[in-house]
TrEMBL record:
Alphabetic keyword roster: Carbohydrate metabolism, Cytoplasm, Hydrolase, Magnesium, Metal-binding
GO terms assigned for molecular function: fructose 1,6-bisphosphate 1-phosphatase activity; magnesium ion binding
GO CC, one annotated term: cytosol
Gene: fbp
EC number: 3.1.3.11
Superkingdom: Bacteria
Alphabetical list of InterPro entries matching this protein: FBPase_C_dom, FBPase_class-1, FBPase_N, FBPtase
Domain Fructose-1-6-bisphosphatase class I N-terminal: 6-192
A Pfam cross-reference name: FBPase
Residues annotated to bind Mg(2+) 1: E90, D112, L114
UniProt cross-references to PANTHER family, sorted A to Z: FRUCTOSE-1,6-BISPHOSPHATASE-RELATED (PTHR11556), SEDOHEPTULOSE-1,7-BISPHOSPHATASE, CHLOROPLASTIC (PTHR11556:SF35)
Subcellular location: Cytoplasm
Protein name: Fructose-1,6-bisphosphatase class 1
Species per Swiss-Prot/TrEMBL record: Rhodanobacter sp. FW102-FHT14D07
Length: 338
C-alpha cells in the first residue's frame, strides 16, 4: 500500500465532509509547529534547551525552557494563517488574540505545548496536546468565557509524542488515527487508521505514591487490581507510570490499558490534577473515538461544563470495561452515602 501523508489524509477528510478548509489548514499548521518542537526536544543538552526557564506559569508551576520554547513555536505558527480566532495555552493566564494586521478565522485552539515537561531533563518522552473548538458566532475578540465549551463540542483533538519516534494521534470525531513522522522526508505518514482500544485491560497507570490520599472507592478498585489472580478480579494486572500523560495515553491507544489521575485529599481543593480544556477533553475525545471511555469517576469528561480555562478534573480513561467499573465503584459509594 502506498503511504498516505497527513496532507493527503486531510484532503480525504475534507472530501468526506468531516472538516472544512480552515480546520484542515489549522491541523497542518499545528503539525508543522510540532515538527519544530520535535527538533528542539531532540537536541537535548546540545541545543541548550534543558533546565528551568526561571519563570512560573499560571498554575504556579516552574516552567522549563522547553515549555516556553514550545509555547512560542505554537503561538508564532498560528498567528498569521487566518484560521484562528484566538488560542489559549497552559502556559498563559488569558487567551492570546491574533495580532493586528492578520486575518481571523472561526476556530479556537487550546494546547498544552509540552506535557510531561518534568521528564525532559531525564530524556523521557514528552508531548503536545491540543483541542479545537468553534468560536461562537459574532465574537471577534474571544475571551476565556468563549472557550468554556464542553468537550462534546470539540471539532478536533490530537496529541504528539516526542519519543523514540515522533507520533501524531488525531481525531475529528470520525475515528482515531495515528501518523508517524518520517524524519528524512519531513512528513507525517498515516501509520494506523481507526485505532481500536481493547475493552478489557491488564495494565493500569496511576501514581501509586498518592495511594494514602485516595478516596475509598479508588482504594477499593486499585486494591482489587493489586490482589491479582487470587483476588476478586481473578487475574493479574501490570502497572506502568511514565508521568507524561501523552506517553501513558499513547501506550493505551497502542495496546490497551487504563490511566487514572483521581481526586485525592492532597488535590481536593483544586478539583483534580489534570486540566480539562487542553488535557482531559482532547484525550477523552481521542479515547472515545477509539472505542474507550473517559470519565471523572462520576460523569463523562466531555459532558462537564467547564467554568475556568485552567480548571482541573479527575481523569479515568482507557479500556471501556475498566473505566466503567472504577466509575461504578465511585457512584455506588456516593449513592450509599446519600
Ligand atoms: P508536568 O508537565 O509538570 O511534568 O506534568 C505532567 C502531568 O500533568 C501529566 O502529564 C502526568 O500524567 C502527571 O502530570 C504526572 O503527575 P505526577 O507528578 O503525580 O506523577
Amino acid at each position: 500500500m502506498k503511504p498516505v501523508s497527513l496532507i493527503q489524509f486531510l484532503i480525504e477528510e475534507r472530501r468526506a465532509g468531516h472538516i472544512n478548509a480552515e480546520l484542515s489548514l489549522l491541523i497542518e499548521v499545528v503539525a508543522r509547529a510540532c515538527k519544530r518542537i520535535a527538533v528542539a526536544t531532540s537536541k537535548g543538552a546540545l541545543g541548550g534547551v534543558l533546565g528551568e526557564a526561571g519563570t512560573g506559569n499560571i498554575q504556579g508551576e516552574a516552567q522549563k525552557k522547553l515549555d516556553v520554547i514550545s509555547n512560542e513555536i505554537l503561538l508564532e505558527a498560528n498567528a498569521w494563517g487566518g484560521h484562528l480566532a484566538a488560542c489559549a495555552s497552559e502556559e498563559m493566564e488569558d487567551p492570546q488574540q491574533i495580532p493586528d494586521g492578520y486575518p481571523k478565522g472561526q476556530h479556537l485552539l487550546l494546547f498544552d505545548p509540552l506535557d510531561g515537561s518534568s521528564n525532559i531533563d531525564v530524556n523521557i518522552s514528552v508531548g503536545t496536546i491540543f483541542s479545537v473548538l468553534r468560536c461562537p458566532d459574532g465574537v471577534t475578540e474571544p475571551k476565556a468565557e468563549h472557550f468554556l465549551q464542553p468537550g462534546t463540542t470539540q471539532l478536533a483533538a490530537g496529541y504528539v509524542v516526542y519519543g523514540p519516534a515522533t507520533v501524531l494521534v488525531l481525531t475529528f470525531g470520525h475515528g482515531t488515527h495515528e501518523f508517524t513522522l518520517d524524519r528524512e522526508v519531513g512528513s507525517f505518514i498515516l501509520s494506523r487508521r481507526n485505532i481500536r482500544i481493547p475493552g478489557q485491560a491488564t495494565e493500569f497507570a496511576i501514581n501509586m505514591s498518592n495511594q494514602r490520599h485516595w478516596q475509598p472507592p479508588m482504594q477499593r478498585y486499585i486494591g482489587e487490581l493489586l490482589a491479582g489472580k487470587t483476588g476478586p478480579r481473578g487475574k493479574d494486572f501490570n502497572m506502568r507510570w511514565v508521568a507524561s500523560m501523552v506517553a501513558d495515553v499513547h501506550r493505551i491507544v497502542t495496546r490497551g490499558g487504563v490511566f487514572y489521575y483521581p481526586l485525592d485529599a492532597k488535590i481536593e481543593k483544586q478539583g483534580g490534577k489534570l486540566r480539562i480544556m487542553y488535557e482531559a477533553n482532547p484525550m477523552a475525545f481521542i479515547i472515545e473515538q477509539a472505542g474507550g471511555a473517559a470519565t471523572t469517576g462520576r460523569q463523562r469528561i466531555m459532558e462537564v461544563q467547564p467554568t475556568g480555562l485552567h480548571q482541573r478534573v479527575p481523569v479515568f480513561l482507557g479500556s471501556k470495561e475498566e473505566v466503567e467499573l472504577a466509575t461504578r465503584y465511585h457512584l455506588e459509594a456516593e449513592g450509599a452515602q446519600a
